[in-house]
Design goal:
With 384 residues, the chain is of the alpha+beta class. It has 2 domains: 2-52 and 239-383, no CATH class; 58-228, no CATH class. Helix content is 53%, strand content 20%. The chain contains 14 helices and 14 strands. The chain has helices at residues 2-16, 18-53, 76-80, 136-142, 173-176, 184-191, 211-221, 230-251, 253-267, 272-283, 288-320, 327-330, 348-374, 378-383; strands at residues 59-65, 68-70, 72-73, 86-92, 94-99, 104-110, 118-123, 131-135, 149-153, 159-170, 179-182, 197-198, 200-205, 225-229. The strands form 3 sheets. Strands 5, 6, 7, 8, 9, 10 and 11 form a 7-stranded mixed sheet that branches. Helix 2 (18-53) crosses helix 11 (288-320) and helix 11 (288-320) runs antiparallel to helix 13. The two termini are 33 Å apart. The relative contact order is 0.18.
């Protein structure tokens, strides 16, 4: 009951200073919202990337010409199969397509190597010539569904009609949102691939411990290629999202500085009104521990309210509003990429760390100067 009464008094004290309390609450909340938005979105995109790469080929072999990705001869696959420890090797046909009608970039992929984790919402993958399956983003951008026609312009500037046989989704929306799946021969004809060439080769390695060794052998066997292992892709995505989140944190450094100034102002001392209030409480019989507990509850009530409100605002901004402010920077996609909703993922460790780095310092900066005032003589405090 005593603690409840102290908490009640702490809340009434905050209400009496509601102008100052509201100003601190707004700055505190916005700071938490910015930090939480960056961390929530970065973590979600990293999880999405992990889902995307979970079943990626052990090694992807690309041909490099003048430092750029070039089409690779399919005859390379025969010699790659002769490397000890290598299993299946097959050609992959895919490419990017700019759709002028919707102003979006689509990824066109052949069915011989469809992305893993595909789950059709409606219909089926293309089995006949002139058929296609599309992602939800493409369906929305072109306003088509199963049974409708999707018209794309091929490399010869000729309109090609594809019948939509399926609209699919995956656990990772980053994987399928902009996807157009065709049969391999249709991809070859649509992009005008030269005979006996492919976009790249996927290589299966029986022993995961030998992936790097096989990649080194491929580089020796074909000096004009670039073997890319799955682990390298994961590290690249990790590094990119860490770099992007750090860049955005730098852009919002002013918010962090404002919070630091706020905490420093609280730590440097109390206002005259607050000191007099502590002196009066001491004079009417409050102990030093009671005063410290009072200030603890004041700081805790304000900081926890700001933290939870900021976290909720960040969740709404990132997962309900599509992170309209941060998405162009953190996603790293072209602005022409079809809109998609980020799948919500919450890292409790990040939440606890953020709470520790924001809530705890503020409570400490509230309690420490109050403890100094509470240990002084009440008459001296009131007169001062």
């Amino acid at each position: 009951m005593k603690r409840l009464k102290i908490l009640e008094y702490a809340l009434s004290a905050l209400w009496r200073r509601r102008g100052k309390t509201l100003a601190i609450l707004v700055v505190y909340t916005l700071t938490i919202a910015v930090l939480a938005s960056i961390l929530l979105m970065t973590h979600s995109l990293r999880v999405e990337a992990g889902l995307l790469l979970e079943r990626a080929p052990d090694v992807v072999v690309q041909r490099i010409m003048a430092g750029r990705h070039d089409l690779i001869p399919t005859e390379y696959a025969t010699r790659l199969r002769e490397i000890p420890g290598v299993g299946d090797v097959h050609a992959r046909y895919w490419g990017y397509y700019y759709d002028a009608i919707s102003g979006s970039n689509f990824t066109v992929v052949g069915t011989a190597d469809p992305p893993a984790q595909l789950e059709l919402l409606d219909g089926e993958l293309p089995l006949a010539p002139g058929a296609c399956a599309i992602g939800a983003g493409v369906a929305s951008a072109r306003s088509v569904g199963v049974g409708d026609d999707l018209i794309l312009i091929d490399s010869g500037n000729i309109g090609v009609v594809f019948e939509v046989t399926g609209v699919f989704r995956a656990e990772s929306s980053l994987l399928t949102n902009d996807l157009v799946v065709l049969r391999d021969p249709d991809v070859v004809q649509f992009f005008g691939f030269p005979e006996n060439t492919a976009t790249d080769l996927s290589v299966e390695v029986f022993n995961p411990a030998e992936v790097d060794t096989v990649a080194a052998k491929i580089k020796v066997l074909f000096p004009d290629t670039r073997p890319i292992t799955r682990s390298e892709l994961v590290r690249t995505y990790d590094a990119v999202f860490h770099w992007r989140s750090g860049m955005v944190l730098t852009l919002f450094a002013s918010a962090l500085i404002a919070f630091c100034i706020l905490a420093w102002d609280k730590a440097t001392g109390l206002s005259a009104q607050e000191r007099r209030e502590i002196g009066i409480l001491k004079a009417i019989g409050w102990g030093t521990a009671d005063v410290i507990e009072l200030k603890f509850w004041e700081g805790a009530a304000l900081s926890v309210t700001a933290f939870l409100t900021g976290l909720i605002l960040a969740w709404v901004h990132v997962f309900l509003l599509g992170a309209s402010i941060l998405a162009p920077v953190l996603e790293g996609w072209s602005v022409l990429f079809p809109d998609f909703r980020i799948t919500p993922y919450l890292d409790l460790y990040q939440v606890f760390v953020m709470a520790f780095l924001t809530v705890v310092p503020y409570i400490a900066s509230t309690v420490i100067p109050s403890w100094k005032a509470a240990t002084m003589d009440p008459e001296e405090v009131i007169r001062a």
